[in-house]
Amino acid sequence: MDLLRFATAGSVDDGKSTLIGRLLLDSKAIFEDQLEAVETTSKSRGYDYTDLALLTDGLRSEREQGITIDVAYRYFATPTRKFIIADTPGHVQYTRNMVTGASTADLGLVLVDARQGLTEQSRRHAVILSLLRVPHLVLAVNKMDLVDYDQAVYDRIHEEFTAFATKLNIPDLEIIPISALKGDNVVTRSEHMPWYDGSSLMHHLEHVHVASDRDLVDARFPVQYVVRPKSDEFHDYRGYAGQVAGGVLKPGDDVLVLPSGMTSKIAGIDLFDKEITEAYPPMSVTVRLEDDVDVSRGDMICRPQNAPKPSQDIDAMICWMTNEPLKPRQKLAIKHTTRTGRALIKDIQYRLDVNSLHRDQDTKELALNEIGRVQLRTTVPLLCDPYSKNRTTGSFILIDEATGVTVGAGMINNAS
């Protein structure tokens, strides 16, 4: 079975946590004692329904306020596919959490309240998902039960969001009317909306095609660890462990090791305790080479005729994630795939208003949760690709060297 990672997004009280609770409940992915605890808590609060949001809102402050603050990950599977859900916050001050949850997602699920229609936060999250190059987007028009399942309400939101989406980079868009609380169109088709002839949300999640979203052309294998067993049985074994970031690797392939420039052939590829005939994203494997070349953590194995250009001058979009603003001439640690170094912020070109898409070129700094275009200079060459081409080799994080805290997430536009 393949894996689908998806992230929920949208305004506060649009029902993101309730929807995930409904997906977990209707797919039988929660235990009876968990459900009993949620039912008991719901009754103690005077609710006449089971508050499914309690299944995902795990922090005490989240449960008390009825909001999502941190990213909550949930795992479940159906006979068709495995799922990892990132339940992300709706509040504007938690934009950084939303970026974190969506950065690895194959699909973004934006909820809107049918009574409220599109809000500024709904648009904001759609823009961020577009910037993060999440290839599939579902707009779930939730709480249809509170507008009497009115088709006119759905049609109005459908038309408004479709027009807005034309300004964004959204390759695949699906708009589904649902009721997370009642279960309409979540796992099974709703009898209350005969005018909707599309699939249920679960059916779409199970069948959306994600395999072709990954770069299977440009071979990229960042080395994370050199495997040298100490036992006598494997004293000749030397392998390079990591996660395939792009392309397809096979035994016999000619490869180039960067930044050294040494060449060799793949002798074999190991997965756990067996040898395999090919590796592709996002598999974690150990690659063995025919020659004893110098390869260490942070190096990259790629094709001799299709290699990234080592670059120290980086043009990137940055989401700033800490209270102290980002300013020109600031020095930070940078982590790109398995490679680390230091970076100097040369210039902030503009701040992007993610509500209006306006570029503020007069800005002198980036504050918490703001996104802008930045020029960096790194101390070590990065073996990178544009983010639009490869989300793994095109992204990086910035780290405060004094505290070790991640303060920024970057998406590379180009490098030289």
TrEMBL record:
Keywords: ATP-binding, GTP-binding, Nucleotide-binding, Nucleotidyltransferase, Transferase. Its EC number is 2.7.7.4. InterPro entries: CysN_GTP-bd, CysN_II, CysN_NoDQ_III, G_TR_CS, GTP-eEF1A_C, P-loop_NTPase, SO4_adenylTrfase_lsu, T_Tr_GTP-bd_dom. The keyword Transferase applies. PROSITE patterns: G_TR_1, G_TR_2. Residues 1-230 form the Tr-type G domain. It holds the Pfam family GTP_EFTU. This is sulfate adenylyltransferase. It comes from Nocardioides jiangsuensis. The lineage of its organism: Bacteria, Bacillati, Actinomycetota, Actinomycetes, Propionibacteriales.
